Target: Mechanosensing system component YbdG
Amino acid sequence: MNDKVVLNHWAHEWLAGLGLGTNWVEYITLGIDIILVLLLSLVVDFIARKVILRIVTRYVKRSKNQYDDILLEKRVFRSLAHIMPALVIYYSLPYLFDESVGLIQFLQKLVVTYMIINIINVGHKFLKALEHIGLSSPRFEGKPVSSYIQVAMICMYIAGGVFILSNLVDKSATAILTTFGAATAVILLIFRDTILGLVASIQISGNDMVRIGDWVSMPKYGADGDVTEINLTTVKVRNWDKTISTVPTYAFISDSFVNWRGMTSQGVRRIKRSLNIDIHSIKFVDDELYKKLLKVERIKTYLEKRHEEIRLSNESKKVDKSVLVNGRHLTNIGVFRIYMESYLAEHPSIAQDQTLMVRQLQPTELGVPLEIYCFSNDIAWLNYEQIQSNIMDHLMAAVDHFELHIFQNPSGSDFRGLRG
Model:
């Protein structure tokens, strides 16, 4: 025993006085030392969490500054509290294990490693708090705040790893960086796919881009189905034809893909289909067609209201009604568009709280497209296909009632009819 102050000196003397062997005295004393370290760390941790942290929390809640509230919400202060017990243990080890120099150094390395990991954790939560502040601040609106934070996190993780390795092998951080720099080319050449996959996995996980069970579409790799496995180098997708596509993990970072998770979470699926109307069948609604369309219940109220509105407008302007081009008139394609909207608005399988419209697109050599844009409230593939097929069946059958015709390229039977 040297002349240092030893916290458990009395236990060592008492055990020796019992007549125990030297080895037994050392083993039992070592056990007492470990218990003392654990108790001391628990006491300091209790004080840090239950006393100091409560005081800090109370001050933050009373403060008018919103930034410290975000730091508290992200548990930055709680993570900082875990460093205090480690500091106490680090400086107590020489007094508890006064004769075991090798053991002291080993335990201090472990404590320093723990503190570095904890500091990295604090830094991670602090950066997350900064990201939250940046995204909610109008000053940084439209700026890639998340990208900057991710770069800072990567740099922090690399620096933390270097310091941990430097502490464990008793080498300076500069020497370790120099060694890594010389070996970088070889490492990148041998472990290229693994490194790319590792980085991609971190980004995919951090940004929540893909999960197991997601439906993804990636035409470049022939993948269109559910994700069944995500590992370091590959992502396996079970396609709808029951084949398996294996996609490199980093492809989900470097290439574009569609994740249909949003559709699944919302419980709706988009329907976007068009009817191409023959331009030659488009005309004004005359009295005969108007009387015919009044019998259609879905648009009767609309027709009566619009007809009266147009009549009053034309009378006020003294329009010459003998020529249909003069003044205002209903058109059969416009009335049919309203009919399509009314039909969709009444359909039980269409989500009425989502976007619902029928729009006229740019005319082409195939006619004038009337496009349906709405959402089915059933996302099951079979049910979805039946819903949109039933809608299109009805509209294609109803178009003739409006004296419109769907455009269709002439077929062999058309040419045979001309010949006859």
Q: What stands out?
A: The two ends are 121 Å apart (CA to CA). The domain at 209-266 is CATH 2.30.30.60 (SH3 type barrels.). Residues 1-7 have pLDDT under 50 and may be disordered.
